[in-house]
Amino acid sequence: MKWLVAPNAFKGTIEADRAAELIKSAIIASNPIHEVSVCPIADGGDGTCHLLSEILALEKISAMACGPLGSPMEGFFSLDATTNTAFLDVSTVSGIKWLKEFQKDPWTCSSYGTGELVVKAIELGAKEIVMGLGGSATVDMGTGILRALGFLFLDKNGREIPVFSPGFITQVAHIQQTKKISDIKFIILCDVENTYFGDRGAIPVFGPQKGLKETDFGKFEQASQNVFELLQKKSKLNLTDKKGFGAAGGIALGLSAFFETRLVSGAQYFFEKVKIADRIRGADIVITGEGKYDKQSDEGKGSHELLKLSHSLGKEIWLITSGKDARGSDFDRVLELPDLDFGSPDLISLAENSLVGTVREALD
């Protein structure tokens, strides 16, 4: 039997590459004559570009940058010198993973550090930036990145508003361009279809997990609408809200005001780069997984996109996940993980043992 092991990350517990090795070990332990190849996947979520860079063996470049609240930290990106393309994740320095619960504050958090990495990549010759949006701490409409790229945001008195200022987005009255716009192009990897504004937009859907109170939705949306209109006036492009602009607090929206920006399915882009269709053709069964499969998984998440591709190629595909939402899905088999105590100090080892045990039980 030939297997392709291609899990997504199990959010909060096991990274995709580690999960792939654990699943592989469980399959071989069950039957040593099985042939198992691995290709961990990502879909635009946290760490997508890092994982892609690892698989493609790209050069990793370190650089100091600001974290989501302005503290200095070491960031990185990868550079493909043959195509002058840089790959970076918003979560690398602007990620919510760097914040404790009490630090989550969309009124203050900024994507400026990500912009610093973009500037460094440009200095090293990048002409195109591939950016994974997942795991951001911000809802700043990309203003932090734009500031790093040379745009000033001024208050009603014409004074510059420093990034990481509390209530930054509520103070913006003018946008000023300080230098010629770079000809850099952006490819934005996204795993959701939410617009920035609206009932299913960035503020009500993703705002709470970034620290925004429901009672502040209206105030934040009004401030965002003002910034959006200022971006429209300053932009020479036709800037409208569209699907995907709700990801990472509107980063693609802000960049689209001044730069050639293409929003693409993170899963499909990843699959093309790693030639996953060829890998599927060489397998009898594909096995994937993610932390919790739910309705949102059907909107561009890696496991669901892999399901569609595998079935189009006539291959059986299994899913490993927690919860009951995957029951009745189109996966050929669903392996349900037992519930975990996320407050346990041994969470990671428990999760790893649970993953291996679930696969072994299914195969024995």
Could you list some keywords that capture this structure?
single chain; 364 residues; alpha/beta; Rossmann fold; Glycerate kinase, domain 2; 2 domains; 6-stranded mixed sheet; 5-stranded parallel sheet; 13 helices; 34% helix
Please describe what this structure looks like.
The chain is an alpha/beta fold. It has 2 domains: 2-40 and 278-363, Glycerate kinase, domain 1 (Rossmann fold); 48-267, Glycerate kinase, domain 2. Helix content is 34%, strand content 21%. It has 13 helices and 13 strands. It has helices at 16-30, 48-56, 91-94, 112-123, 143-148, 168-171, 202-206, 217-234, 251-256, 266-274, 276-281, 302-312, 347-363, and strands at residues 2-5, 35-38, 59-66, 72-80, 85-89, 128-132, 151-154, 174-177, 185-190, 260-265, 285-292, 316-322, 333-337. The chain has a 6-stranded mixed β-sheet, with helices on both faces. Strand 3 and strand 4 form a beta hairpin. It is globular and about 70 Å long. The mean pLDDT is 95.
How many domains, in number, for the residues?
A: 2
Strand order of the largest sheet: 3-4-5-6-9-10
Query: Tally the helices: what do you get?
Result: 13
What amount of the residues lies in strands?
Answer: 15-25%
What shape does the CA trace take?
Answer: globular
| CATH architecture level-2 label of the largest domain | Alpha-Beta Complex
Terminal residue distance:
14 Å
Number of strands: 13
Helix content: 25-40%
Uncertain residue ranges? none
Mean pLDDT: 95
Q: What is the alpha-carbon Rg in Å?
A: 21 Å
- Decide which structural class fits the backbone: alpha/beta
Helix/strand order: EHEHEEEHHEHEHEEHHHEHHEHEEH
